[in-house]
Write a structure and sequence with these properties.
CATH class of the largest domain: Alpha Beta
Protein name: Glycosyltransferase family 4 protein
Number of strands: 13
InterPro entries: Glyco_trans_1 (IPR001296), Glyco_trans_4-like_N (IPR028098)
Pfam family, one: Glycos_transf_1
Order of helices and strands: EHEEHEHEHEEEHEHEHEHEHEHHH
Strand order of the largest sheet: 3-2-1-4-5-6-7
CATH superfamily of the largest domain: Glycogen Phosphorylase B
Distance between the termini: 36 Å
GO molecular function: glycosyltransferase activity
Number of helices: 12
Shape: globular
Structural class: alpha/beta
Length: 359
């Protein structure tokens, strides 16, 4: 198929450091190319891909100095795409609802994977207006705030099997990976580590929007001798960071749409200890790829009583069954074919109607 992948421009594809959505776009794009599809990637100019790259800006916007209006580059990208629409069988958007007005008018087959949280009241009127737009969830729990949307599929994220290395040795520290922000629960991860007396390594970025929270709530907690703040790390460092950990702490307090770091940890054979929010019950298999808890005390008990007997080989094997990039790409291709076929049927009906009207 001739496929357009439309990525956010905030990070390169793949990201140099942190960037969940752009990383998934990268994995998917490269796998589609490997399978023989003709793929064009609309992304920042510092992206690296075997697909044909179409770039509205030279570098990713988070790293672009003096970039004030990031939205302008996204609209430029959408215009570039509009001018090339006839070249594609399907367009796969990863930029939320930005394209909805255009897609309603151009009728090109498309799907949109919604990567973010949907429990925001402000977006409900918009999704009700554009309720015909075919959207894809990354977990079933993600759908709950807008059940009326035109959900055409649910596709869990996937990783290349070769991206991470399995380690059967139990690590000597707990790991926290992601962003330092209120909803990710780094404060709870620190509390868990201190109470159980196990070192915690924190590899996380701090967005500008969360800088005040970090300085007010978190910075002073990093002074404890068991806590080590590493900062933001890249893909190469991430694999080593996770596979050498005893467990990944994921004490979220928000409706996580997916949580890519969970399957990155599973791929290393490292168990996930996660709070029961959002996608967690769909992603973590109790006792097999990790443990689901509801409090700090439950996390402590799990670390002390269940972690020593954890089977890291089974964890890796389960990842290979459920969360590979090949499985993700295959499921998306089925959706592409489904939407392209529906669009063809609709165009055929319209043609037949017009022909009959003109008789």
């Amino acid at each position: 198929m001739r496929i357009a992948q439309v990525s956010p421009l905030y990070e390169s594809v793949p990201p140099i450091l942190y960037g969940g959505t752009e990383r998934v776009v990268s994995y998917l794009t490269e796998e589609l190319v490997r399978q023989g599809h003709e793929v064009s990637l609309f992304a920042s100019g510092d992206s690296v891909s075997k697909a044909r790259l179409r770039a509205p800006c030279n570098e990713s916007l988070r790293l672009k100095k003096n970039c004030i209006d990031q939205l302008s580059y996204h609209f430029l990208m959408l215009e570039m795409l509009q001018q090339e629409l006839d070249e594609f069988d399907i367009v796969h958007y990863h930029v939320d609802y930005l394209h909805f007005p255009l897609s309603r008018k151009n009728k090109k087959p498309h799907i949109t994977t919604l990567h973010g949280r949907l429990d925001i009241p402000d977006i409900h009127p918009l999704f009700k207006e554009y309720r015909e737009m075919p959207v894809v969830s990354i977990s079933h729990s993600q759908r709950s705030p807008i059940p009326y949307a035109n959900w055409v599929g649910n596709v869990y994220h996937g990783l290349p099997i070769t991206e991470t290395r399995y380690n059967n040795n139990t690590g000597e520290y707990l790991a926290f990976l992601g962003r330092i922000c209120p909803e990710k629960g780094v404060d709870l991860a620190i509390e868990i580590a201190i109470k159980c007396g196990i070192p915690l390594k924190i590899a996380a970025k701090i967005d500008k929007a969360d800088a005040e929270y970090f300085h007010r709530e978190i910075k002073h907690l990093l002074n404890h001798p068991l806590i080590e703040y590493i900062g933001e790390i890249g893909e190469k460092e991430k694999s080593q960071f996770l596979r050498n950990a005893m467990a990944l702490l994921f004490p979220i307090n928000w409706p996580e749409p997916f949580g890519l770091v969970m399957i990155e940890s599973m791929a290393c054979g490292t168990p996930v200890i996660a709070f029961e929010k959002g996608s967690v019950p769909e992603i973590v298999e109790e006792g097999i790829t990790g443990f689901i808890v509801n409090s700090v005390s439950e996390a402590l008990e799990t670390i002390q009583s269940k972690l020593p007997a954890f089977n890291r080989f089974l964890c890796r094997a389960t990842f290979e069954k459920r969360f590979t990039v090949e499985r993700m790409a295959n499921e998306y291709v089925k959706l592409y074919q489904q939407e392209a076929s529906l669009n063809h049927q609709e165009l055929s009906k319209n043609y037949q109607y017009k022909a009959k009207f003109l008789e």
